[in-house]
Design goal:
6-stranded antiparallel β-barrel; mainly beta; 245 residues; 7-stranded antiparallel sheet; globular; single chain; 2 helices
Length: 245
């Protein structure tokens, strides 16, 4: 029988406090093997949702994008971002916000179209998924990816474009997506082979690299707290008549 772990409840409480009483669908790691299809209104990743990203480059889908209060020992010295095996670590949650300096308002519950620019905030440490051309990743010598900033400190290096296979598609749960770093044009990726030692032994390096068609650049939104989709308001002819007056 599936269950909702205590850290999920804690995150749900935080979400309720932040957003007010909104509809949230909880997908837990314990239901991985028997997960039911998303219910109506929860088929897509939406603004304000808190999600885990599964890495597609290693067979079995066991690894999630995560961060923690462990800094890189080289490069920028910022907080490290890695892949960790298992779906039950609360360091793997990221909250979806709109990109900084864009004209698109990422309103709570809004669906995310192909090409939209988002930021992902690490739920535990409040830092943003970040990258920069100035520093190389410590193991594979690709572009470094880190977690940096705070709720009130963010810049364009935190912006990532949602890239889908369908030109007019929406970012859907359990469907692959690529994340393109706006400032440098590189894509969030991992080789899946480069492993760290102590103090994060066994975790895999995450970096950014030039676009290719391999699963090393593919990610899937899986477990999380999903805010219900807000459907666009439909106007009647009477509404339009009133607006014209």
């Amino acid at each position: 029988e599936s269950f909702v772990s205590s850290h999920i409840f804690a995150l749900l409480k935080m979400a309720m406090l932040r957003w007010g009483l909104v509809a949230v669908f909880v997908v837990t790691a314990s239901s991985l093997g028997e997960r039911e299809p998303p219910t109506d209104g929860y088929h897509h990743v939406t603004c304000g949702s808190t999600i885990k990203l599964q890495y597609a480059g290693i067979a079995g889908g066991e690894f999630r994008l995560q961060s923690h209060e462990v800094a890189y020992g080289s490069g920028s010295g910022q907080q490290s971002v890695t892949l960790k095996r298992g779906a039950d670590d609360n360091n793997g949650f990221w909250t979806v916000f709109g990109g900084i300096g864009t004209n698109w308002a990422c309103k709570r519950g809004g669906v995310i179209k192909n090409g939209r620019i988002v930021r992902l905030q690490h739920t535990t440490t409040k830092k943003w998924l970040h990258s920069h051309a100035e520093f190389r990743s410590p193991l594979s010598n690709n572009q470094e990816v880190s977690a940096f900033g705070s709720l009130h400190e963010s810049n364009s290096a935190d912006n990532w474009q949602v890239v889908l296979d369908e030109k007019d598609g929406l970012w859907a749960r359990e469907r692959t997506v690529r994340l393109k770093h706006i400032d440098t044009g590189n894509y969030l990726m991992a080789t899946g082979q480069h492993q760290f030692g102590h103090p994060i032994e066994g975790q895999r390096e995450v970096a950014a690299g030039r676009k290719d068609s391999s699963p090393q650049q593919q990610w899937t939104a899986m477990e999380g707290l999903y805010v219900k989709e807000k459907k666009p308001k439909k106007y009647t002819m009477d509404d339009l008549h009133v607006k014209q007056k």
